[in-house]
Amino acid sequence: MKRTRSDSARQLADVLRRQILADEPLPCEQDLCAEYAATRNTVREALDLLRADGLITRQPGIGTVVVGHKVPHGLNRLGGLAEILREHGEVTNEVRTAGPVPALGGLPTPSPALLAALADDHANVRRAAVQALTPFATTPEIAAHLSTLDTDSDADVRAYARLALG
Fold first, then answer.
1. Residue 143: CB atoms within 10 Å
2. 27 DSSP β-pair partners
């Protein structure tokens, strides 16, 4: 007897829910289809079930993101992080280093990992990297990286890169 797509989606959602609650990374849709021999519609339906449970968010141009654990606190008073987290255990603050930081035209330097994300095989990662690098597009090094995306296979990545370069 063949299972319906809804049954398959619920079963896949249960597997993914266990992964998310165990703090395991959530693969992209394409990898989920391959790993679980599921159709794209089944995977999307499973992800919609997880979104309805508040475990993930899905955003165009960014993809599927696991929602972080929320710490409940009242909104009727202001408090620092230590006060909010006191009931969860001891919180200490420690200054690790102090000193002047040289200014770089008001913008920090993007990390090498962010630049490396431009070469990632997943279009959603490249889109996110382009969006994160957009404030740096006026620097020659970043502009050079973004201009290489003009022939990218993903139309959104090309469009984001063109917008970043003005």
1. 16
2. none
Q: What is the reported pLDDT for 123?
A: 74
Burial state string for 14-39 with b = 16 or more CB within 10 A and e = fewer than 16: eebbeebeeeeebbbbeebbeebebe
Closest C-alpha among 71, 96, 76 to residue 86: 71
Nearest to 137 by CA among 120, 129, 113: 129
How does pLDDT run across 46-91, given as a tens digit for each residue? 999 999 988 899 888 888 888 876 555 565 666 676 776 777 777 7
Burial class for 48, CB neighbours closer than 10 Å (0-12, 13-18, 19+)? middle
- pLDDT of 34 higher than 90: yes
Task: Identify the pLDDT of residue 74.
Answer: 60
